[in-house]
Amino acid sequence: EITSLLSLCGGHFSGEQEIRVNSPFWILNIPSEEMARGLMKRTVCAKSIFELWGHGRSAGELYASLKNYPLDKMLPYLQSDSTYKIHIHTFNKTLTQAQKIKKIDALEFLPFKGKVNLKKPEHIFWILEDYGMNPNNVPEEPIHLYFGRWIADGQRELIESYSVKKRHFIGNTSMDACLSFIMANHGRVKPNDVVYDPFVGTGGLLISSAHFGAYVCGTDIDYNTIHGLGKASRKNQKWRGPDENIRANLRQYGLEKYYLDALVADSSRPIWRKGMLFDAIITDPPYGIREAPRRMGSQKETDKAVERSTENHFFVSSSYHLSDIFFDLLKFAAEYLVMGGRLVYWLPIYRPEYTEEIIPRHPCLKLISNCEQMLSSHTSRRLITMEKVKEFKDQDENSYLLDGQYMPYRGHNSFREKYFSGVTKRIAKEEKDNQK
């Protein structure tokens, strides 16, 4: 997310130190404070950003680092007519007030000339102490210390204000608000973009893009979901209400003006005219766990079985293999994304069999990032971000069929069976343990 947002702000990712996976603190080299503020106006992963004045693996190293920090960069924030306060944050340890005061007093060598104001200071300085990730083995002294000037906070409050629990219209697979905003940031969604979701469902992914000023639209094969009909997903509610739909969700957050429309359509069939271009495609395809992957059936299947979904509305659906979903999605993105536009989607993975080779590829799309979210001990899903780097030609349409790596992708089709085999084994193990 940070890498994508930096590129959106005109910067690039470069860490002054190797990013430690087992630490919540990063040191980034960002060229301007304006760019840092732009980053924090979007991120839901980062909590705060600071101008780093000094750091070290011990208090002595921190103080030496602070003494070496250029005085001309400090002085604008330490003037006699200014107010300030110093805040201490410890990760994985709680300090007493006396301990905090002692650590603040130890910074008296810094040339603070202003007055302390704990309620409304002009400048806030933070001491950050990292005590590691193991709560059962907390060291006496921090393993790393940082001191810096606070610049801005991230957008963590969006997770609560856009919570699915408070949303007007939800479904069985409505996307978590935090993940939805992360996906919009991976897609580098910006004001006046047009963002499309081919598996739109209840529109959870449209909301985060609309929040960032993009115009949003989507399609789904489920007539009932698009029209807000049928059984409700909420507990203690049998049927959906008359105003439970995607438009109502955007209206709830004051974003209705960004809503283009949602269509009942099969994502595997072409419905858009040539030249219809999207700035981002952000979606969560069905994996076959809570929602079955479906597409429109053939005429032969139509003669065999006609399913009635609503009054005066008929459609036939057939099974839609996961591997086909992903290849249709990549082909669509390659054709209908603008150059530099991004495709962001979730790929379910059976972890014991996972290798990088099973990530679907397309010659017009470059893999930008591949992030894992654990679902269980044996399954996870990967947030895949791809960027269009080459114009789509007719010969690219089925280019993946000629690729020798195509066969490993077929493993996605059995994800449902592998998922439930793991669930069955876990239940059997729990029952066996309870009998002991």
TrEMBL record:
Keyword Nuclease: no
Domain tRNA (guanine(10)-N(2))-methyltransferase TRMT11 N-terminal: 21-156
Compartments, record wording: Cytoplasm
Keywords in alphabetical order: Cytoplasm, Methyltransferase, RNA-binding, S-adenosyl-L-methionine, Transferase, tRNA processing, tRNA-binding
Location of the Ribosomal RNA large subunit methyltransferase K/L-like methyltransferase domain: 166-291
Gene3D superfamilies assigned: Vaccinia Virus protein VP39
Transmembrane segments: none
Domain of life of the source: Eukaryota
EC number from the UniProt entry: 2.1.1.214
Similarity section: Belongs to the class I-like SAM-binding methyltransferase superfamily. TRM11 methyltransferase family.
Function, as annotated: Catalytic subunit of the TRMT11-TRM112 methyltransferase complex, that specifically mediates the S-adenosyl-L-methionine-dependent N(2)-methylation of guanosine nucleotide at position 10 (m2G10) in tRNAs. This is one of the major tRNA (guanine-N(2))-methyltransferases.
Name the record gives this protein: tRNA (guanine(10)-N(2))-methyltransferase TRMT11
GN (gene name): Trmt11
